[in-house]
């Protein structure tokens, strides 16, 4: 039995070494969203069943993924590590596998924040966990001379946040973190 575990650990370690760099560069803080695609690998199960669970998954419109033997698991709003734990728990509770090890690989580079309007270089900015509104504006070259700094709009799902960046410039502690998929729109000021 110990030999089987050692072989599985070595196989998992080898998989991590050959996984594409973009897949290994996962963002542990990023929550999964509808439409996100990720790679899932399972270890600690019979070798002939690994391919039935391991593979590429996409979070469906209901925020779930469909896994072999256990069906739908909620994935939306979970981080990769939370999803890993939820899947392992589901397999154990269903008594399908006693000690499964799940690994979720997300492509952090596939997540962006869009900024448009009155900035010097409107663009998509790659998401990182420490990304804030001011950092996105700076990445876009800063405000243009016509920018309305008092009414910067952040579109987040169904929400519209209106942020007064002048207050953030006076007190940087008020800077807000942005999330993958946010759209930042900076309009012209009305003279």
What does this structure look like?
- With 191 residues, this protein is of the alpha+beta class.
- The protein folds into 2 domains: 2-108, wza like domain (wza like fold); 111-186, Outer membrane lipoprotein wza fold like (Roll), CATH 3.10.560.10.
- The chain has helices at residues 2-18, 21-24, 47-53, 80-93, 133-139, 165-170, and strands at residues 37-43, 55-58, 64-67, 71-74, 101-106, 112-117, 123-126, 152-156, 159-163, 183-186.
- The protein has a 5-stranded mixed sheet with strand order 7-6-10-8-9, covered by helices on one side. Strands 2-1-5 form a 3-stranded antiparallel sheet, with helices on both faces.
- A hairpin with a 5-residue loop joins strand 6 (112-117) and strand 7.
- Residues 7-26 have low confidence and may be disordered.
Task: Provide the descriptors you would attach to this structure in a database record.
single chain; 191 residues; alpha+beta; Outer membrane lipoprotein wza fold like; 2 domains; five-stranded mixed beta sheet; three-stranded antiparallel beta sheet
Write the layout of secondary structure elements.
Elements: H1 2-18, H2 21-24, E1 37-43, H3 47-53, E2 55-58, E3 64-67, E4 71-74, H4 80-93, E5 101-106, E6 112-117, E7 123-126, H5 133-139, E8 152-156, E9 159-163, H6 165-170, E10 183-186
Parallel strand pairs: 6-10
Antiparallel strand pairs: 1-2, 1-5, 3-4, 6-7, 8-9, 8-10
């Amino acid at each position: 039995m110990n030999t089987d575990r050692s072989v599985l650990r070595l196989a998992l370690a080898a998989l991590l070494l050959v996984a594409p760099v973009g897949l290994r560069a996962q963002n542990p803080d990023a929550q999964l969203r509808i439409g996100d695609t990720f790679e899932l690998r399972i270890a600690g199960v019979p070798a002939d069943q690994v391919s039935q669970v391991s593979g590429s998954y996409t979070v469906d419109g209901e925020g779930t993924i469909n896994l072999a033997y256990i069906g739908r698991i909620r994935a939306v709003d979970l981080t990769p590590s939370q999803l890993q734990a939820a899947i392992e728990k589901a397999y154990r509770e269903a008594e399908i596998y006693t000690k499964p090890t799940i690994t979720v690989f997300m492509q952090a580079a596939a997540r962006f924040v869009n900024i448009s309007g009155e900035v010097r270089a409107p663009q998509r900015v790659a998401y990182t966990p420490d990304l804030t509104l001011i950092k996105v504006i700076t990445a876009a070259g800063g405000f243009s001379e016509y920018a309305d700094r008092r009414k910067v709009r952040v579109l987040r799902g169904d929400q519209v946040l209106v942020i007064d960046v002048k207050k953030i410039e006076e007190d940087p502690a008020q800077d807000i973190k942005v999330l993958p998929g946010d759209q930042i729109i900076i309009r012209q000021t009305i003279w």
